[in-house]
Amino acid sequence: MDKLYLALFYIFKFIITITPNSVHNAIVKFLASIYMRLNKRRFKVVMTNLNLAFGDEISMQRKLEIAKQCYINFAKFLGINFIKNQNTTKEKVLKKVCFKNENFLIEAINSKRPVIISTAHFGEWELFSLAMAARFGAVSVLGRRLDSKSIDKILNANRTQFDVELIDKQGATKGILKALKQGRIVGILVDQNTAKSDGIEISFFNKRVLHTPSVSIFAQKTDALIVNAFISQIDENLSEICFFESIDITKFDKENAIKLATQAQADACEAMIRQKPDEYFWFHRRFKRFYKEAYL
C-alpha cells in the first residue's frame, strides 16, 4: 500500500509539473467535487460543524458555499501547493506571503522570553511554518507522523525547510521545552477536539467545547508569551499571516490563568473564522464532546 501511495504521489506531481495553472484549478475543483460526493460521512461532519457554529446566522446556501470552498482549499493547499513548495527558496516563499501586525510578534521576540504561536487548521497552514522560518528564523512545529512512511518522509522534507523542526506529537513535551529553551519559535495547532482527560472546557461559537490547554501550560511553565497567528488568502497568489497581540499568562490570576489564556486562544480563532469561514478546515468533529448526537 505504501508503494501505491508513493506511485500516486509521483504521478500527481508529474501532472502538476507539466501543466499550467489553469489546468491546476480544474484539477482542484474536480478532486474537491469527487471527495465531497464520495465521502458523505465527512460531508455530514462539515455541515454539522457549520450548523453548530453559525446556527441561523447564515443561510443554508451560504453554508453549502463554505463547505464547497473548504474542499477546494483542501485539494489546493495540501495537494497542488504542497508540490509547488517542494525544494523552494526563502525568496519564493516570501513572495507568496505578507505579514499583518507583525509588530506583535517582533515585540514578543525582543522581550527575550520564549514565544509560542497558537494557530489553527486555517488557510494554507503548511505554508505558514515555512513563511515564519523564512522571515523570523528557527521555528519548531508540533506534528503527527503519517501512516505511510514514504509519504511521511516527503511531507517532513517539505515541512523542515529553512530550519523548521518537526516535533512528533508522541512524547512532544521534551522536544517543545528544548526548543523554547533554545530560543526557537514554537508553533502549535490547537483547534481540534480533545479527549476528556486532555482538554478543558471553554466557549467556542457560544458552544461548550473541549480545548487543549497545552500552549497555556507550556507558557506558564517556561514564562513564554503566546501569540495567536493565522494564515489566510488575500488573492490567488498571496496569503497573509495575521498576528494578534501577545497573551502574557503571568498577568492572569494564577488559579484561573490556564483557562483564561486558553479561552483567549479560542476567541482569536473564532474571530478569524467569522471573518473568513471558508478558509477554516471544517473536517474535524470540533464540537463532538458535548454535541455527539449531532454527528450521528
Automatic annotation (TrEMBL):
GO terms for cellular component: plasma membrane. One of its GO terms (biological process) is glycolipid biosynthetic process. Its EC number is 2.3.1.241. Keywords: Acyltransferase, Cell inner membrane, Cell membrane, Membrane, Transferase, Transmembrane, Transmembrane helix. InterPro entries: LipA_acyltrans. It is found in: Cell inner membrane. It is an enzyme of class 2 (transferase). One of its GO terms (molecular function) is Kdo2-lipid IVA acyltransferase activity. The keyword Cell membrane applies. The chain crosses the membrane at residues 6-32. NCBIfam families: PRK08419.1. This is Lipid A biosynthesis lauroyl acyltransferase.
